[in-house]
Write a structure and sequence with these properties.
Strand content of chain A: under 5%
Radius of gyration of chain A: 18 Å
Organism (chain B): Nonomuraea africana
Shape of chain B: globular
Structural class of chain A: mainly alpha
Structural class of chain B: mainly alpha
Family (chain B): Belongs to the ABC-2 integral membrane protein family.
Strand order of the largest sheet of chain B: 1-2
Radius of gyration of chain B: 19 Å
Membrane topology (chain B): Multi-pass membrane protein
Keywords (chain B): Antibiotic resistance, Cell membrane, Membrane, Transmembrane, Transmembrane helix, Transport
Subcellular location (chain B): Cell membrane; Membrane
Order of helices and strands of chain A: HEEHHHHHHHHH
Oligomer: heterodimer
Chain lengths: 247, 267
Amino acid sequence: MAVLERHLTLYKRLWRASLFSSFLLPLLFLVSIGLGVGGYVGTVEGVPYVEWIVPGVLASTAFQMAVGECTYSVLGEFKWTRGAHAMFATRVSAWDMVRGWMLYIVFRVEVAAVVFLAVVAAFGVLASPWAVVTLLVVGLLAVACAAPVSAFSASIDHDSYFALLFRFVMIPSTLFAGVFFPVEQLPELVRPLAYASPLWHGVELCRAATLGVAPPWPAWVHLGYLLAFAVAGLWWAAFSFRKRLQD
Amino acid sequence: MVTLMVARQVSVGRVGAVVGRNLGALRSGASYWLVLVSGFFEPLLYLLSIGVGVGALVGRIPLGDGRVVSYAVFVAPAMLAASAMNGALAETTFNFFFKMKYAKTFEAILATPVRPIEVALGELTWAMVRSSFYTAAFLLVMAVMGLAEPWWALAAFPATMLVGVAFGAAGMAVSTFLRGWQDFDLMTAAQFSLFLFSGTFAPVGGYPPVLAVVVQVTPLYHAVELVRGLALGRVEWALAGHALYLAALAALGLWVASRRIQRVLCS
């Protein structure tokens, strides 16, 4: 809890810079692709294109925040500001740091998700009251992605790996995990890559919720996959935080 | 007049030395190379996802001159223009700012006979080289995927160089005003908004009139129109207007940047 409080205090000073990426960007995306391109698309799987991509943009925003927030900030805590070492010198353990950090990420994601949902609801693009369930989904998705990325950030020594993480993991996931078009359109060979991405499971769960339909796979499979990802990620994060703190 | 003044101050050799320094810095390590090379994949991924994936949903799209093309053909030139912009900006914003503020590279350079305008020209040339690598590779992909006739792809290449110069110069001018890394959020915000709304993903004609006017004032719109016109073999007078806009932006950016380097570092 003390760790969460520390991050929130820091965030109080930095929140303005994140306004764009967490609130404005998803809406701009929605206007540009959803309305702009949507005007030419018509309907997908029986619903207007805007309604179809709203849950995708919601989930991918959570995903991008989770990944983005856990790169420079995490490496920085160990390498540049050595804030993690300072915490470790008090009675905070590595596992406490991981938990506090995850709570902070979930807080950020939930705030962004609530604002986003409120705006799209005001425009009447939510088809089902089940849409509130997406708040739980994006929280789980955020942990499933934030935990392994934090672990990765804590175990590398140079920040140029992040450019590669963004270009070869984050952007391809965003573009090909069913956010903008159904993954069934992908060639059969690469489709398993989309299925392997936690984002795809998050997107499909959110889509099922906002449209009020059943997800493509049983809901418990999607949830189980995200949960497994989160647990493994947390374990790895605690491990690599602990290891890093010994240097 | 301005050209004359510039010509009197500038030596090609000294500008070349600034470019050469950047070239030498490439030897600093494999990680920089990886970042450089991976920059090419970004527009390609967008092309595959939005162009081909969403394109399958869109079907065909009207060009405005009576022709109707597949969505991928429509989007590809826009991704190309955006790639030229991003390549040039990556060099003249993040790298330029670092060299100006933290590495003190320019202070070192200016201690030699090199002048501020030559620093600006050298950095700009380097930015253009970087963006040209991206666009050349991308044009090749477009030709191979059948998204542009090879000859028109060749014709579009100089246009992408102009786009690189214009955005490189503008980015450099902006960088001299940035106070710290936090300001980069604003810059990337602006860059991304341009990317989303400059007639890249949907024709500007479909926008609400007010938004359409705003878009037509911003630079990436002109870059996209110019590159798209050439890549699709649609030559008309409007292209000259777009090119002129970009050239003016380049000149203005260069002028402001060299003035600012002079003011900040030489006084």
